[in-house]
């Protein structure tokens, strides 16, 4: 999203979305299920960024969520199962980069 208002709660939204997505499945966890959970969690967290508190999540519609999910999948080349492995690798790389940025901004600079 380009409209960042407040990052507070994004991690909670991300974690809650992953937990909800994975809890809805059954049996052994598959790579595709993990990929779908990561995609949904990232998109959900992006709506949290756009307002204070939970307002972004409350105002989000299913259509808006699905449109953003499609855009994100397209950006990562995740729209078909055949590319799932490269998609998962791309997402994990992005997450590692984001975590490094957070640590650099909030931990290293305050030592």
Short recap of the structure:
The chain is mostly helical and about 110 residues long. Helices cover about 70% and strands about 0% of the residues.
Structural class: mainly alpha
Mean pLDDT: 76
Biggest beta-sheet profile: none
N-to-C order of helices and strands: HHHHH
Account of the protein in words:
The relative contact order is 0.13. With 111 residues, this protein is mainly alpha-helical. α1 (10-23) packs antiparallel against α2 (31-49) and α2 (31-49) crosses α4 (62-76). The radius of gyration is 15 Å and the shape is globular. The protein is built from five helices and no strands. The model has no long low-confidence stretch (mean pLDDT 76). The chain has helices spanning 10-23, 31-49, 55-59, 62-76, 84-106. Helix content is 68%, strand content 0%.
Describe the secondary structure blueprint for this structure.
Blueprint: H1 10-23, H2 31-49, H3 55-59, H4 62-76, H5 84-106
Helix pairs in contact: 1-2, 2-4, 2-5
Observed structural traits:
111 residues; globular; 5 helices; mainly alpha; 0% strand
